[in-house]
Amino acid sequence: MPSADLDERLERLLRTVQDGVIAGDPAVVVRRGRRRRLARGTAGVGAVAALLAAVVVVAALLPDRLPRPAAVATGPAPGGVPDGAVPWFEAHLSGNPGELVVSVTAPVAARSRPSDPCWEGYQPQARAEADRMVVTVRRFRPRAPVPEGHLCTTVGLLRNVTVRLPEDLRGRPLVDGATGQRRPLVEGLLTPGWLPDNWMPLRMYRSGKGDVWRRQYHQVGGVRAGSGPWRIVELAPGPAERVTVVAIPPRLLGSWNRWPDTPVAGHTQVRGRRAEIDADPWRRIVSVRWREGEVAYVVTGRARQDATLRQVQELVVRIAQSLR
Amino acid sequence: MATGEGFHDFYRDAYPRLVAQLYAVTTDLGLAEDVVQEAFVRAASRWSEVSTYQAPEAWVRKVALRLRLDAARRLRRQAAALTRLGTRPDPQPALDPEDRGLVEALGRLPRRYREVLVLHHCLDRSVQDVGAHLGIPTATVKTRLARGRAMLAGLLEEPTGQQQQGAPHA
């Protein structure tokens, strides 16, 4: 492997990990360091001092992590049996004070009843700490195991879970209790209500002057088999490799990811607005773009080699129309 | 000098970076966090001295790298106990399939190759610096770099289960 490639890949890995790591409270580290210093300084100064030192040393060995406040369940248990915490992808402001909406990827059948073997339910929990807000989404599954020979698709749609915060966020970062990772609070980026089966979020990031939000989706393969380990099943590829949803300032709407001579392929209605569709045959991408007040949106799909731009257009328009 | 002076900013700035670097070396995020945290505690206990060093972050990194070899096992057990008590989940970074593949490949490299690769490629350290950091001759660093790169290239060619499956929450 060329050194430059390795440099680039390692650098990207480090950046990704670094972005998800949050430094804790430095006061705790300082306090522990002070105890260490005291323990060092008081060693060997006589029996009484040694006794005192022992007390200090014992104190130094006590856990420094202050007991954290208990997580508050912010919704009723949905039924079924708890099945651990499920990572969530990102959080949005719900519009109601003290409330967030977090997105998890869920199987298509998650919306069914608990009697369905593929049902999944979710219960959010929130815990306010001094320097962060920890939100955990607990998953519940049916009591009965998935029957032999029955398959549940594992991905397919985003499910929004509303979280009532125990106190105001006050600028604190949000942390996913399932992974310990910091997750973004998305402002102004819409979420698809529909994705093709086996599509899921790939990555989400903010760029520009902090006013450009991007989220990419892609297709993965996967089914949950009844009994036994997970099994991967090869699926027919869809027309697009990935689809990107972008929220941008309106001044960028016309030029975002579009060459000047890209032909307009048509218009459609998205969220009650007239949206323009353009298809670039050279780069094999199709975009739908429209404006909503002070924010503009562009949904772009890149075609697979064997797909037509028309097929990609249908996919991109359907995803755009499902945004909410 | 009071420990708080400058230490808070230093800690908040350097902690995520050092955890990421130690993660690349250990491929275990929980372990990386534990050894970096412990290294910062040691820095805090002698901050009046460490803060005068030309590169306090390099000092903390060196301590963390040393800690991971022996004390890391003990710290890991403590962390596991804390996890069992329900104080925090075992952390895993959210990575896309490509990054996950790289971590898996790094994890399969012998430690001696992994650490020189990370120190040299991630931190832009010269082979002489890496040698001084790890206490090994420069020629050994060069040999390990060459072998490590070749092994890593081979490992990255192999498809892995994780790469096929994709990252559920990249």
Could you characterize the architecture of this molecule?
The complex is a heterodimer of chains A (324) and B (170). Chain A is of the alpha+beta class and 324 residues long. Chain A has helices spanning 3-20, 26-42, 47-61, 309-322, and strands at residues 72-73, 81-86, 91-93, 99-107, 121-128, 133-141, 151-153, 156-164, 174-176, 182-183, 185-186, 199-207, 212-219, 223-225, 240-248, 264-270, 273-280, 285-292, 295-303. In chain A, the strands form 4 sheets. A 7-stranded antiparallel β-sheet of chain A has the order 12-13-15-19-18-17-16, covered by helices on one side. In chain A, strands 1, 2, 5, 6, 9 and 10 form a 6-stranded mixed β-sheet that branches. In chain A, strand 5 and strand 6 form a beta hairpin. The longest helix of chain A is centred in the first third of the chain and has 18 residues, at 3-20. The model of chain A is unreliable at 61-70 and 222-233 (pLDDT under 50). By secondary structure, chain B is an all-alpha fold. Chain B folds into 2 domains: 1-93, no CATH class; 94-170, Winged helix-like DNA-binding domain superfamily/Winged helix DNA-binding domain (Arc Repressor Mutant, subunit A). Chain B is built from 10 helices and no strands. The longest helix of chain B has 23 residues, at 4-26. Mean pLDDT of chain B is 76; it is low at 82-90 and 160-170. The chains are: A alpha+beta (324), B mainly alpha (170). Chains A and B meet through helix 1, helix 2 and strand 12 of A and helix 1, helix 2, helix 6, helix 7 and helix 9 of B.
